[in-house]
UniProtKB/TrEMBL annotation:
Protein name: Sodium/calcium exchanger membrane region domain-containing protein
Principal subcellular localization: membrane
Record key words, sorted: Membrane, Transmembrane, Transmembrane helix
Organism name: Denitromonas iodatirespirans
Limits of the Sodium/calcium exchanger membrane region domain: 36-185, 216-352
Amino acid sequence: MRRLVKAEVPLFLAAAVLGAGVTLEHGAVGHGGALLWGLLGLILAAIIAVAVRISHHAEVLAVRWGEPYGTLVLTLAAVSVEVVILVVLLQGAPNPTLARDTVFAALMLDINGILGLAAIIGGLKHGITRYNLDSANSFMAMLIVAIGIGMFIPDFVPDEHWKAYSAFSVGTMVLMYAAFLRLQTVEHRTFFEHVAAVDEEAHDTAHSPSWLHGAIMLGAIVLVGLLSEVLSVLLDAGLAGSGLPKSLPAVLVALLSASPEILTAARAAAANRMQTTVNIALGASLATVLLTLPVIEGIALFTGDRIIMALTPMQGGMLLLTMLAVMNNLHNGETNAIEGVSHLALFFAFAGLVAIGLL
């Protein structure tokens, strides 16, 4: 028990930061300056620490359950963090494009950032890294259709019909993800597996029961939601009249939720387990679209306020380049550092466009 409590110190510290944030948020908003940004940075650090602990417990379950259940748990945990933060931020200052920008930023980070970095790490250490081609094809088949239904077609739906189309897209995406989960874990499970060394469960030396890892993970997700309440207030105050990029909140949400995935994917690539990286990068992208969009569209239907999900021309162009790069690079079951550089270049282009306010 003592070992378990010691391992969860980051969660206790995050809870203390939450208490300090609730106490100081109004004073920080009124005072502004260093106090506001210092408290905001502390809240962000706390959310990242909690997200890393969520990732830890998801990884323990991943080792115990094996592929594809392992990375499925990890991606669902990460997307849960993203949805919780996003829903909380939507209750703050009006931002009808926040959900769209967050999903877009998550796609750029998952596909170009994670996949690119992992391919470079794996390529430099092992030369050529291998994965199951069927998994990449399956992910991309679902992802292209999901993005089309959720983020391209809405641009052509007139205001008088948005509720009907929104209800259709919610139902379609839920059915798509349910079907994908069934096929991924039963009929086509072998698509998402690849022969590789099995991890030792060294990071769970206490050998705690699986239900305990699941319970702590759920509690940590709730803690993220509470921290996000404070983050929303501070972020709205900090960005008001600051001149910072308008898409910064969306990028922060995507980065906070993906931070554990980045570490896991990098470790997997270094251990020559590219299949795990592919499952994480493309699986998280698919889960982001098929799980986040229905939640946000459901909120829009409930409130009666349309949320803009249609991509801008710049976003559409970046996404098209990303899809072309993925289809070209993940076409033969092998990847290398050169292919990783191409994805990372697209990620840097995304980051640069955000920095100068064009995305």
